[in-house]
Design goal:
Blueprint: H1 12-22, E1 29-30, H2 47-59, H3 74-83, H4 88-92, E2 95-100, H5 102-117, E3 123-127, H6 132-139, E4 144-148, E5 150-151, E6 156-157, H7 159-166, E7 174-178, H8 191-204, E8 207-212, H9 221-224, H10 226-231, E9 238-243, E10 256-261, H11 265-280, H12 289-299, H13 301-332, H14 340-343, E11 348-350, H15 355-365, E12 367-368, E13 374-376, H16 385-395
Parallel strand pairs: 1-12, 3-4, 3-7, 7-8, 8-9
Antiparallel strand pairs: 2-10, 5-6, 9-10, 11-13
The protein binds pyridoxal-5'-phosphate (PLP).
The site of pyridoxal-5'-phosphate has 12 residues, from helix 5.
Length: about 400
């Protein structure tokens, strides 16, 4: 049977990581993958995580299965992080949360749930979006449509076109929105724009699926949740897919959460019963370790404060690199203005480099960038900045 198989194309981003690994040039720079790097180019384990792991090692007494929805207190902790402890959604019990294997796991369970229970609902993704969104949703059986988002001419949000497109989305369809640090563009709506987006979503009866993979990486934990909280109006239903890969540095532990907000606590329980079937028939129940770390840190005042500081350090470094890159490019060339990079959020920006320029950077300078021009700002360091900017200036 297997002899009939045709090879599938390699993953566009992970294929480049492989090529980077094999590149023998010592001065090579990797701006492709979606992981945070510190000033020495490492992806560190957070101190709060190491401490939580120590405590877990000492206190764990069984490796028995978790429930289908994960660690019992996990859901409440996640909801408090998303909305703050006093929010009506947290106190009213109209939201349910499942611990999932990463943000991707949450998106896939959401996709399965939507396709199974609302088979005519289509899902609308920003143009562009995280490369895996269409694949995950299509694998779940959903039809994927797109709405305008990014204006490459101005390196900004195509806000009027976005609102016009939302006004055409049929009631009962689903819109996938990036809560903050939009991947791949780094361009987020302002709080005022979020309000207008939420107005249209509410008026038209569109279901928001908020992908929250970078809470804390943009401006701050609460500021980054501004869009989500604007969409969380009384009685409004929504879905949130959280990832703790980036803000806890727990990439390989696969830890995330799926939260479904219903209009009432009773409906939320009904939705949970359906979600549990989606999980049971997929991976049965989530892995423990990553969720155990997140729950330990969020519950302990000291570990939580360390975590918040560590996230602030990551955020400040990224924003520092954004500024240094824009300023250094301004010194090297007047061929293009890169000051827009300073105003964007999170690890990614759309650089505007063409596939040909990206190829030259890789071939001639050992600088790796995704061919669509997306750069991971966290791959920049004070040490590699001069070389990086010289190389970019020479290919422009
Ligand atoms: C926008 C977005 N959503 C979801 C994910 C998935 O994260 P995880 O690694 O937790 O599955 C990512 C990871 O890069 C992402 O950028």
């Amino acid at each position: 049977m297997f002899e009939q198989l045709q090879p599938a194309p390699p993953d566009a981003i992970l294929g480049l990581t492989e090529a980077f690994r094999k590149d023998a040039r010592p001065e090579k720079i990797n701006l492709t993958v979606g992981v945070y790097k510190d000033a020495s180019g490492q992806t560190p384990i957070l101190r709060c995580v190491k401490e939580a792991e120590k405590r877990l090692l000492e206190s764990e007494s069984s490796k028995s299965y978790l429930g289908i929805d994960g660690i019992p207190e996990y859901g409440r902790l996640v909801r408090e992080l998303l909305w703050g402890p006093q929010h009506e959604i947290v106190t009213s019990s109209r939201a349910v949360t499942l611990q999932t294997p990463g943000g991707t796991g949450a998106l896939r369970v959401a996709g399965d749930f939507l396709h199974k229970l609302f088979p005519s609902a289509k899902i609308w993704c920003s143009q562009p979006t995280w490369a895996n969104h269409p694949g995950v949703f299509k694998a779940a059986g959903l039809t994927v449509e797109t709405y305008p988002y990014f204006d490459p001419e101005r390196n900004s949000l195509k806000f009027d076109a976005l609102i016009e497109a939302l006004q055409q989305i049929p009631a009962g369809d689903v819109i996938c929105l990036h809560a903050c640090c939009h991947n791949p563009t780094g361009v987020d709506p302002t709080p005022e724009q979020w309000k207008q987006i939420a107005d249209v979503v509410q008026e038209r009866g569109i279901l928001p699926l908020v992908d929250f993979a970078y809470q804390g990486f943009g401006v701050g934990f609460d500021e980054d949740a501004a869009g989500l909280r604007e969409l969380s109006r009384p009685g409004m239903e929504l879905i949130v897919a959280s990832s703790f890969s980036k803000n806890f540095g727990l990439y390989c532990e696969r830890v995330g959460a799926l939260t479904v907000v219903a209009a009432s606590a009773e409906t939320a329980q009904t939705a949970l019963s359906q979600l549990k079937i989606c999980v049971r028939t997929n991976y049965s129940n989530p892995p423990y370790h990553g969720g155990g770390i997140v729950a330990t840190v969020l519950q302990d005042a000291e570990l939580r404060s360390t975590w918040e500081q560590e996230v602030a350090t990551m955020r400040d470094r990224i924003n520092g690199m954004r500024k240094l890159f824009a300023d250094t490019m301004a010194q090297k060339t007047s061929a293009r203005d890169f000051s827009f990079i300073k105003n964007q959020h999170g690890m990614f920006s759309q650089s505007g480099l063409t596939p040909e320029q990206v190829d030259r950077l890789r071939e001639d300078y050992a600088i790796y960038i995704v061919r669509n021009g997306r750069i991971n700002v966290a791959g920049m360091t004070e040490d590699n900045m001069e070389r990086l900017c010289d190389a970019i200036a020479s290919v422009l």
